[in-house]
Specification:
single chain; two-stranded antiparallel sheet
Length: about 350
């Protein structure tokens, strides 16, 4: 077998080099291009300095093509995030309506229909808005940010110079970087694909995974907060036959102190909404706590739901975390891009110091 060299990881995680050129690649001279529909994502926009099919072979690796590829990869990573919502995704927008309905069923009874204005109630509402707003921004980010696909220039380079170093996706005909998988819903080869989530009508991949984890986490925190405060601080909204005094809850129709008239006239519809909000938040809270922990644990172990045991990419919890959330802790728990993930989704550090897999 011919030895095929792959991308080597350098200590500063900023550069890599392609070393040997396989005999098969040297004999090819030029390569073919996969169907353009598999490059319809935003990740190849503006990058086409490595032509294919022109009848002339590209330069050899020792004449600068590797440096050019590295430069393109760095510029391509810096161009993220890519926002957009295709018509195909918009057609699945019914889930947006479901999510919006669940949010409204919590927000209206907890905030708008609240008739209690004591210090504890106001404090609860203020605290509620912190994870609630972070959840909404995270949701918009995961909905709008493209997960990342194989850039055209990288596929062309591999096709020309190292066709044996990476396998081709059978469904898309595109060379697969390490940890890339074909998404049957979007019909794209997605970088570090985790799963397709119908709740966000988007694929969770390398460039939007952070926002999915933040969305699930802040959604769980919001539900837990509502479950804790709704039946205690807002008890009179749920149970109007109680009144609160210094000695605890007393029967409101014989209270030791006067009860405001507006608290005696809570419509039955409002009480039903409070009950529905409580039940919804209990159910989703219990589910999302475990779901959030599951995805946080996988990020710390550098795993995905597709790659249940990717131990060779486990380079330590801190570096694993940075490959999803970035290197700046100030941005870790905020639904903003910041500097983005520490890698580019194409080059992957591993325990043995080699990016990619050697496939002869």
């Amino acid at each position: 077998k011919a030895t095929v060299s792959v991308l080597n990881w350098s200590p500063n995680r900023a550069r890599c080099s392609m070393l040997q050129r396989s005999p098969a690649a040297a004999a090819r001279g030029e390569g073919s291009v996969a169907n353009d529909q598999h490059f319809r994502g935003p990740d190849d926009a503006g990058y086409s300095p490595l032509p294919v099919g022109t009848g002339a072979p590209l330069q050899d690796a020792n004449e600068g093509n590797d440096d050019e590829l590295i430069r393109q990869l760095d510029e391509w990573r810096a161009s993220h995030p890519h926002y957009g919502c295709t018509g195909e995704r918009a057609s699945r927008g019914c889930m947006f309506i479901v999510v919006l309905a669940l949010v409204v069923l919590t927000y209206i009874p907890y905030v708008i229909l609240n008739h209690q204005h004591g210090a504890s109630q106001v404090a609860c509402i203020v605290v509620f808005h912190v994870p609630f707003l972070l959840m909404l921004v995270s949701y918009l980010q995961i909905v709008l940010i493209h997960p990342g696909t194989v850039p055209r220039f990288w596929h062309q380079f591999v096709e020309q110079h190292r066709p044996d170093a990476f396998t081709k996706c059978k469904k898309s005909g595109v060379h697969k970087p390490p940890r890339a998988h074909f998404d049957s819903v979007s019909q794209e080869l997605v970088l570090n694909m985790d799963h397709f989530c119908p709740w966000v009508a988007n694929t969770v991949g390398f460039y939007n995974r952070k926002f999915f984890i933040l969305f699930v986490t802040y959604c769980a925190i919001t539900c837990i907060w509502v479950c804790i405060t709704l039946p205690t601080v807002f008890a009179k909204q749920l149970f109007p036959f109680f009144a609160n005094d210094s000695n605890g809850y007393r029967h409101r129709y014989n209270p030791p102190t006067p009860v405001p008239a507006e608290e005696l006239d809570i419509p039955n519809g409002h009480r039903i909404l409070f009950g529905v909000a409580f039940v919804i938040n209990v159910l989703f809270g219990l589910l999302l706590v475990f779901f959030a922990w599951f995805h946080i644990r996988m990020a710390l172990a550098n795993e995905t739901t597709i790659e249940h045991d990717a131990r060779k990419y486990d380079v330590g919890r801190r570096r694993n975390w940075e490959q999803v959330f970035g290197t700046q802790p100030v941005y870790w728990f905020l639904p903003v891009w910041g500097e983005g993930p520490s890698t580019d989704g194409i080059r992957w550090p591993s325990r043995n110091g080699v990016e990619g897999e050697v496939l002869c």
